TrEMBL record:
Listed InterPro entries: NTF2-like_dom_sf, Rng_hydr_dOase-bsu
UniProt entry keywords in alphabetical sequence: Dioxygenase, Oxidoreductase
Superkingdom of the source species: Eukaryota
UniProt KW Membrane keyword: no
Signal peptide (residue range): none
Gene3D superfamilies in the cross-refs: 3.10.450.50
Pfam families according to UniProt: Ring_hydroxyl_B
Keyword Ribonucleoprotein part of the UniProt annotation: no
Gene Ontology terms: biological process: 3-phenylpropionate catabolic process
UniProt-listed SUPFAM superfamilies: NTF2-like
Organism: Geodia barretti
GO MF entry, a single one: dioxygenase activity
Protein name: 3-phenylpropionate/cinnamic acid dioxygenase subunit beta
Length: 168
C-alpha cells in the first residue's frame, strides 16, 4: 500500500464537511466503515485541558456514543419529519483545519488529527458554535477512505446549545 498523503486526506475531510453541510446524510454514511465508533466524551470543567482526567473515558458518561446502526437510525428519523430537534432543519457550516497524519500498526489505516469549527443556525434566532478537535482513524477500502473511528473533543466544557443533533 502507498502511504496516504496529506492533501488526499484533507480532500476526504473537506468532502465529508460538504456532504454534512448540504444535508446529504445518506452519502455521508457511505464514508463510514460498518464497524465505526463515533463518540464525544464529556469534559470536566474543573481540570486543566492537559490533565488526563479532563475527558471521560469510553466506558463513562459521554455526550455521543454511536455505531453505524444508531447513525443510520438517526438519519432515518431526520428523513421521517418527526425529528423535532431538527424542525426546522439546522443549517451548518463545518471548517476543518490543522490536519495531521500519524501512522498506525495497520498499513490500511491512518490516524488523523484535525481541528474544527461547526457553525449551526436554526429558525430565526438559534445560533451555536462548536469548536474542538477530532481524532479519526481512516481505513482504506475498495471504495476509498472510510472513517472507522471518530473521537470528537469539544473545547466547551458546558454545551449551551438546546440539543446536539448535528454531526461533527
Amino acid at each position: 500500500m502507498t502511504e496516504p498523503n496529506l492533501q488526499e486526506i484533507e480532500q476526504f475531510l473537506y468532502r465529508e464537511a460538504r456532504l454534512l453541510d448540504n444535508r446529504q446524510f445518506h452519502q455521508w454514511l457511505e464514508l463510514l466503515a460498518e464497524d465505526v465508533r463515533y463518540w464525544m466524551p464529556c469534559g470536566h470543567p474543573v481540570t486543566r485541558p492537559s490533565d488526563p482526567r479532563d475527558l471521560t473515558e469510553p466506558d463513562e458518561l459521554v455526550v455521543i456514543d454511536e455505531d453505524m446502526d444508531s447513525l443510520r437510525r438517526r438519519i432515518e428519523r431526520l428523513d421521517s419529519g418527526f425529528a423535532w430537534a431538527e424542525d426546522p432543519p439546522s443549517r451548518t457550516r463545518h471548517f476543518i483545519s490543522n490536519v495531521e497524519l500519524e501512522s498506525t500498526e495497520s498499513p490500511d489505516e491512518v490516524k488523523v488529527y484535525s481541528n474544527f469549527i461547526m457553525y449551526r443556525t436554526r429558525g430565526e434566532r438559534e445560533e451555536d458554535f462548536y469548536v474542538g478537535s477530532r481524532e479519526d482513524i481512516l481505513r482504506r477500502s475498495e471504495k476509498g477512505w472510510l472513517i472507522a473511528y471518530r473521537r470528537i473533543i469539544l473545547d466547551q466544557t458546558v454545551i449551551s446549545a438546546k440539543n446536539v443533533s448535528n454531526f461533527f
